[in-house]
Write a structure and sequence with these properties.
The complex is a heterodimer. By secondary structure, chain A is mainly beta. In chain A, about 10% of the residues lie in helices and about 50% in strands. Chain A has 3 helices and 21 strands. Chain B has one domain: Clam (outer membrane lipoprotein receptor (LolB), chain A). Classes of the chains: A mainly beta, B alpha+beta.
């Protein structure tokens, strides 16, 4: 199955990108193929590489070409879009295809249907996701790949219904895709049971019952952007199963069932933009909160504010919280190897952005700080557009914390500096 | 009977005379505020709606060029009042398919949304920075969508000819301190379009200049189809060509919505 998928993902974009242009000139004069060439490297600056590191302190090394093309014939309601990357991975020393997006579009007056691989971004948080329950590539994010690589496309069907009262986006995802988490060999990370190296990972099978569905209702009303969200599916990071959590002899991982119910609102306020979002994470496999391997039900919420200042300077700040609902059950069942979380886990984020030289030079700093886990994550970045087509980026991912087992603190030894040079065409 | 005829003639002459005086003095009688308001509505509110392909060339001191190629849709909701803007970027390659939407309000900060196609994200952005650069050009957001006339005190300095056109020369001093301290505008007496503007900075030095370079009659509406904004101090300039301008094309309200930010209205942007 995987092999067939691989062949499909390789040939489909290839065919569209090679043969697409031949059909295109009938409709338009401009080149229908766009994309970029990019090199992207990231090196660990702290001493000590994780076990299994293949190329020393090289976390990321790649040369990549992205090709994208679309075909929306005029007077037709149907269109197609394809975006695929082909790259050389210097860490694994192989060539790969990353079929980013590819879908068929039907555009009607009152509704739209999109079938295929698509990227979704929901919610109002800035790098904080509550109702955005779609798969993410955290390894890409922590290793300094451009932001778009944080999002993974999902093979799905999306139905849009447009109306003046409320619009709706309904998504069905037949096949589960987990988050890409920092992997062995590239990253140091906390594992409560390092001695047990063999782990089975059980992904939800592609069955009708396992299909995920996500719904968003939205409307602009009285200066507010309002969103209402619903999701039924699975946690995207794995939970743990053990024969005995105190001194386990076997461990396996699986993705527990999850429902999320949420709301968001944003509007112009206090001379800037204010936003807020809430999500109730209903942990369906552990509603009682006694299973230490599965996350308890939580309320997640955020409030943010951004404001622009003269001379292209923007500041954004957010407060984010996760509240554990069955905290006493959580505490009572917590195995000794696990770090104990506070009932309320919080982050404060700050973003500073400054544009210079007619916006060709961009300086930015994003920071996460958790007052309860006492850890942080800083991303200073500088990018410069030499021309409209050529752009270079230099940045760093800096982690730290009081403990090596907290969410950000576990990455303490993963500090890295990254560069990317991109030529757009 | 004769008397009545004379009376009617006298009355008619009187009316004609009044019309004559009014016509010949019409522009003289305008206050500087009225001139600037007329300029504001003629320049920023032409037609009920407008569609244009806009090509911006950002040229630095050394002559290096950058391009911003976009389609702009604008709709008025009241003359001199609220407006909505929708922009779709064709070039450069890294922002192709990006869309940008503005709800411009007269009595409060605008609402602005940006759609980033690579991650399918609609992002609301802070809109209180009217003086930051529009897409890296020499035009500020305010230059693009207009500055309300009642935000400045206006004085008619003189009337003079500019390139053979009779112009009002109006000085506008912002009531509240902002990026510039003084603006002098050459406003065409016959069509109220701004042919030239000079901006003065906090040191009271001339630092930015707007010039209308080409005017065309489009569906009976005189339109500045080529314009340039020059920064005198940095030597940077932005040349803008309005191509394929159309007015009163019937842009629906629904175009200015999240729906079309995410799926650009192809019939309008091609």
């Amino acid at each position: 199955m995987d092999k067939i998928n691989k062949i499909l993902y390789f040939t489909l974009p290839f065919l569209v990108l090679v043969f697409g242009p031949w059909t295109y000139p009938i409709y338009a004069q401009e080149s229908p193929i766009h994309g970029f060439l990019q090199t992207n490297y990231s090196v660990r600056v702290a001493d000590g590489n994780p076990q299994g590191a293949k190329q020393g302190n090289l976390i990321l090394g790649e040369e990549r070409i992205q090709l994208k093309g679309s075909l929306y014939p005029s007077k037709s309601k149907i269109g197609v879009f394809v975006k695929s990357d082909f790259y050389r991975d210097e860490v694994e020393e192989d060539f790969n295809v990353d079929f980013r997006e590819g879908y068929l579009d039907l555009r009607e007056d009152k509704f739209g249907l999109r079938v295929g691989r698509q990227i979704y971004t929901w919610g109002v948080g800035d790098l904080l996701f509550i109702n955005d329950v779609f798969p993410k590539d955290w390894e890409a994010f922590y290793s300094g790949r451009p932001l778009e690589y944080l999002k993974i496309g999902t093979d799905s069907v999306k139905l849009d219904i447009y109306s003046d009262i409320v619009s709706m986006e309904a998504i069905a995802i037949p096949s589960f895709v987990p988050d890409d988490l920092p992997s062995q060999g590239r990253f140091h990370f906390f594992d409560p049971y390092p001695a047990i190296t063999y782990r089975e990972i059980d992904k939800p099978g592609t069955t009708f019952r396992n299909s995920e569905c996500a719904l968003r209702l939205y409307r602009y009303i009285g200066d507010f952007d309002i969103g209402v969200y619903f999701y039924k599916g699975f946690f995207r990071s794995p939970a743990m199963k053990a024969d005995n959590f105190t001194s386990p002899s076997t461990i396996s991982h699986f993705y527990p069932e999850l429902s999320v119910y949420g709301l968001s609102a944003q509007r112009s306020a206090f001379g800037g933009v204010a936003n807020t979002e809430y999500g109730y994470y209903d942990s369906l496999n552990d509603r009682g909160g006694e299973d230490p391997g599965v996350d308890n039900s939580q309320s997640r919420f955020l409030a943010g504010y951004q404001r622009a200042f003269p001379d292209d300077f923007t500041v954004g700040m957010q407060y984010y919280g996760e509240w554990i609902h069955q905290y006493s059950q959580y505490k009572d069942n917590l195995p000794p190897a696990f770090p104990k979380k506070d009932r309320l886990h919080q982050y404060i984020t700050l973003r500073f952005t400054k544009l210079l030289k007619y916006q060709a030079l961009k300086l930015s700093l994003f920071s996460f700080y958790s007052p309860d886990e006492n850890d942080y994550f800083l991303i200073p970045e500088m990018s410069y557009n030499f021309t409209d087509n050529l752009q270079a980026t230099l940045g760093a991912n800096i982690f730290g914390g009081a403990n090596d087992n907290s969410m950000l603190g576990q990455h303490n030894k993963n500090d890295n500096i990254y560069t990317a040079v991109r030529y757009n065409f | 009977m004769k008397n009545i005829k004379i009376l009617i003639m006298i009355l008619a002459l009187g009316v004609l005379g009044m019309i004559w005086t009014k016509a010949s003095n019409s522009s003289d009688a305008l206050t500087p505020e009225e001139i600037v308001r007329a300029c504001y509505t003629h320049f920023y509110y032409a037609g009920n709606d407008m569609k244009a392909r806009i090509l911006m060339k950002l040229v630095d001191k050394g002559g290096q060029e950058r391009i911003r190629d976009l389609t702009m849709l604008r709709k008025n909701y009241a003359e001199g009042g609220d407006q909505k803007y929708f922009m779709y970027f064709h070039k450069p390659a890294d922002v192709k398919d990006t869309t940008f939407m503005v709800y411009k309000y007269i009595n409060k900060d605008d609402d602005r949304w940006l759609f980033i196609p690579a991650i399918n994200l609609v992002k609301r952005i802070a809109a209180n920075d009217k003086y930051s650069s529009f897409v890296g050009s020499d035009f500020t957001y305010e230059d693009v969508s207009g500055r309300k006339p009642d935000e400045d005190n206006h004085t008619l300095l003189r009337k003079e000819q500019l390139n053979g056109k009779n112009c009002f020369v109006v000085e506008s001093i912002p009531k509240a301190p902002l990026e510039y301290t003084k603006r002098i505008s050459w406003i065409d007496e016959t069509n109220f379009l701004p042919l030239k503007e000079e901006f003065y900075d906090k040191q009271n030095e001339f630092y930015r200049e707007f010039q209308a370079q080409e005017l065309k009659d489009i569906n009976g509406i005189l339109t500045i189809t080529r314009r340039v904004m020059k920064n005198i101090k940095t030597g940077h300039r932005t040349e803008v060509a309005f191509q394929e301008v159309e007015y009163n094309v019937g842009i629906g309200d629904d175009i200015f919505s999240e729906r079309y930010l995410r799926r650009p209205p192809l019939e309008w942007i091609r």
